[in-house]
Every structure is written in structure tokens, then in C-alpha cells.
Write a structure and sequence with these properties.
Blueprint: H1 2-5, H2 9-33, H3 37-43, H4 54-101, H5 108-122, H6 125-136, H7 139-150, H8 152-171, H9 173-194, H10 206-212, H11 226-230, H12 233-264, H13 272-298, H14 303-318, H15 330-358, H16 361-393, H17 396-404, H18 406-416
Helix pairs in contact: 2-4, 2-6, 2-7, 2-8, 2-9, 2-12, 4-5, 4-6, 4-9, 4-16, 6-7, 6-16, 7-13, 7-15, 8-9, 8-13, 12-15, 12-16, 12-18, 13-14, 13-15, 14-15, 14-18
Length: about 425
């Protein structure tokens, strides 16, 4: 059939995948550069013995999360008002300039300013991607497509520990920020050249367009006021899921290089080894989690049952991670963390898809923006205390927190959206 051979929509997913990869490369650079003593002394992040001042680093991370939260509030509205093409293009310019601008920092305040603008710009990525998936895919393919673009976060987290140490050791720490910041402008060229809505795109055949719209309900087109969005249980279902689990992903991205350096004596040159294993398996988790619920729906399961069963499996798979802080064996620690991050990404792919299951396309980016903002606000509070907790008590409390969060989160997701009920404005 024509609809099975015409697949331009997957090119759009490829663009979203690369945007997400760049997003995570840019946010990951600082966590790797802080393992370099020269950088720490240059910007005032070093203790007297040359080690990282974790408490100040925690505050810098909190500044990023706070700006990230604010960015979701702004960018979700911008994307729904101006569309994915213009809104996403503006955002990637903002975050790329901010990422490269870290190279100009001479003190902690300079790094903090860079983190703030990076957070505001990067907040557009997931609302834009989820909105674009809702525009380009039928419901039965959305979780798989979401899993594919979401896998870009892991690729970005793999590329960063491969690229950043090479740049720092050979060209200085400033080069790491400049080179990675430039990647966004390469992506922007292809985005502006390629993206249109499916009904306007000359490369989309009538058969593929019919397939894209084959199981989509009647959509509202009016812009939805925030008062309506915030008052809906479906919105809070997504928000609670993000509030309890997003801070954990932020902890992995920010603190794993420090954990491996201090607990297992992995230096900057060798840091890519554990990170590659962890984030490659996270890719598997993201794609497999999205594929599994899509497969269940193709077999006749409802979206509600397919999404939530997959999220339950993922939530259970995270629970052993607290053992990672107790073992002295590097390989066991890597395996436990990789299982948890893979499960998180499978969880995340399905949680994002519940928004397009429950809301019309005109509201998707705003709902994702609001829920992600709430997740980032909690992440900011967690980040502000993580440095102190880690410095005083070590990594164990952080891993225990990670092991306990997903099942209560799923319970709240279910209680506030028991049937993934559809809301059309």
C-alpha cells in the first residue's frame, strides 16, 4: 500500500533526533569540563586543594534548572502561537549562542549567566518535538516516534564525553563550549530548509497524509488559555509524572561524571567508557519503550493500557539503582545505572505521548511546557540541595531517591488521568 512506502514523516523524526542530541551535548559540557582542574581555577569553582566546590556547582545547576523552568512557560506558548518552524528555530539560536558564550566566562557569575540563557533556550526542545510528532504521526505510531527522537538525548550524552575531553585536553576548555555551541547552527540550516506541516509539504503524498490523519480525532484550532490548561486533571497527570522523575534524569546528567571520578577514580580521558555504555543502553530503553506500547496498540490494546503497562515495567526496572552507591565494582555500578537510565527513557517516551493522547494539537506544546516547567522547578530545588547532600553524605541518598520515585509517579499519572481522556478545545 502507498501509505507504507511513503514515509517522509520519518525524516522529520530524524531532524528532531539530531536537535535533541545537540540539546544534550550542550547541557552536558559543563558537567565534563568541571573534572578539569584548570577550568575550576579559571572560573573560581575550585576548593583550595583544586577539587570541585560541589555546593557552588549545585547552585549553578539550580540556576540552569530555574531558567529551564521559566523557559518552558515561555516557549510552550511561543511554539503554540508561532508554530514549530519559527519557534524552534528561534530557540536553538538562543541556546547555541548561550552554550558558546560559556567560553567568555571569567568567574562563577559568568558561568551562571550562560546557564540561565542556555536553560531558557533549551526548554523549547521537548515541547517542539512532541508538538511536531502530534502533527506528523497517527496516534498508533506516536510513542515509537517519540522514543526515537527522545533517544537523541542519550546520543548527545554519549557524544559529549567523547568530544569534550578531546577538545579540553588539546585546545583548552573554552574550545569545548565554542565547538559544541556551533552545532545548533548547522541543524538550523536543515530545519529551515526541510520543515513544513504535512498538509503543506510537497514531499508528502496524499496517501501518507491520509495515513497520518487516519486515527486522529477532530482537532480544536483555537489557542488555549493557560487558565483552562492548568485547571485540567489531564495536565496535572503529566505534570506530576514530570515532577517526580525529571529531577532524577537531571541528576544523572549532572553528577555521574563526578560520581565516577570520585567513587571509582575514572579520569577525564577514560570518562567516555562508562558514559557510552550507560547512554547507549538508554537509547535502547527509549526506543524499546516507545515501540512496546505502540506494538500493544497495534494488537488492539487501548492507549491507556499500553502506555501505563509500559511505564509500570520501566518504573520497576529503576528500583535496583540504589545498589550502585554501595558497590565498589565499577562494572556493577555501570550496569545498575544503565538499567535505570534505560528504564527512565522508556518511561519518558510514554509519558510524553500521553499528552498527545489527551490533548488536541493546538494545546500540546503548552501542556508539555507546563508539565516540564513543573518538573524543572522541582529539579531546581533538588539541584540546590544536591551539592550539599553529596558533599556531606555521599551519593547514596541520591540513588535511594532515584529508586523510589517512579511507582508513586505512575500512581499519580493514573489517578489524575484514569482513561487518558481526550480533551478538545
Amino acid at each position: 500500500m502507498q501509505e507504507k512506502t511513503s514515509k517522509y514523516r520519518w525524516r522529520i523524526v530524524a531532524l528532531l533526533f539530531f536537535a535533541t542530541s545537540i540539546n544534550y551535548i550542550d547541557r552536558q559540557v559543563l558537567s565534563l569540563v568541571v573534572t578539569d582542574e584548570g577550568f575550576l581555577r579559571a572560573v573560581g569553582l575550585a576548593n583550595s586543594d583544586g577539587s570541585l566546590n560541589k555546593e557552588i556547582f549545585g547552585y549553578l545547576d539550580a540556576a540552569f534548572k530555574g531558567a529551564y523552568a521559566l523557559g518552558f512557560l515561555i516557549m510552550g506558548t511561543v511554539l503554540d502561537r508561532f508554530g514549530s518552524k519559527k519557534g524552534f528555530g528561534f530557540a536553538i539560536v538562543l541556546w547555541s549562542v548561550a552554550a558558546a558564550g560559556h567560553a567568555l566566562a571569567k568567574c562563577v557569575v559568568g558561568i551562571g549567566i550562560g546557564r540561565v540563557f542556555l536553560g531558557i533556550g533549551e526548554a523549547a526542545n521537548f515541547p517542539a518535538c512532541v508538538k511536531t510528532i502530534a502533527e506528523w504521526f497517527p496516534k498508533k505510531e506516536r510513542s515509537f516516534a517519540t522514543g526515537v527522537f527522545n533517544a537523541g538525548s542519550n546520543i548527545g550524552a554519549i557524544i559529549a564525553p567523547l568530544l569534550v575531553p578531546f577538545l579540553v585536553l588539546n585546545y583548552g576548555w573554552q574550545s569545548a563550549f565554542i565547538v559544541t555551541g556551533a552545532l545548533g547552527f548547522v541543524w538550523l540550516f536543515f530545519w529551515l530548509l526541510t520543515y513544513k506541516k504535512p498538509e503543506e509539504h510537497p514531499c508528502v503524498s496524499p496517501a501518507e497524509l491520509a495515513y497520518i490523519k487516519s486515527d486522529q480525532e477532530e482537532e480544536g484550532t483555537a489557542k488555549t488559555p493557560w487558565k483552562k490548561i492548568i485547571g485540567l486533571r489531564q495536565t496535572w497527570s503529566f505534570a506530576f509524572g514530570k515532577m517526580l522523575t525529571d529531577p532524577l534524569w537531571y541528576l544523572y546528567l549532572t553528577w555521574l561524571p563526578i560520581f565516577f571520578k570520585e567513587q571509582h577514580h575514572v579520569d577525564l580521558k577514560a570518562m567516555f567508557l562508562p558514559m557510552i555504555v550507560i547512554y547507549l543502553l538508554s537509547d535502547v530503553g527509549s526506543v524499546a519503550g516507545g515501540w512496546f506500547s505502540s506494538r500493544l496498540m497495534q494488537k488492539g490494546w487501548s492507549a491507556n493500557k499500553a502506555r501505563k503497562l509500559t511505564m509500570l515495567i520501566c518504573g520497576v526496572a529503576v528500583t535496583p539503582i540504589f545498589f550502585a552507591s554501595m558497590t565498589s565494582n565499577l562494572n556493577i555500578a555501570i550496569a545498575l545505572i544503565a538499567l535505570a537510565t534505560a528504564a527512565h527513557q522508556g518511561w519518558s517516551a510514554n509519558l510524553f505521548t500521553t499528552v498527545s493522547d489527551s490533548f488536541s494539537k493546538s494545546a500540546v506544546a503548552s501542556v508539555v511546557g507546563f508539565g516540564s516547567m513543573m518538573g524543572a522547578l522541582v529539579g531546581m530545588l533538588v539541584a540546590a540541595t544536591t551539592g550539599f547532600v553529596y558533599q556531606e553524605f555521599g551519593p547514596m541518598p541520591l540513588f535511594v531517591f532515584a529508586s523510589c520515585a517512579y511507582l508513586p509517579a505512575l500512581l499519580l499519572v493514573h489517578l489524575y488521568n484514569k482513561k487518558l481522556e481526550r480533551t478538545v478545545f
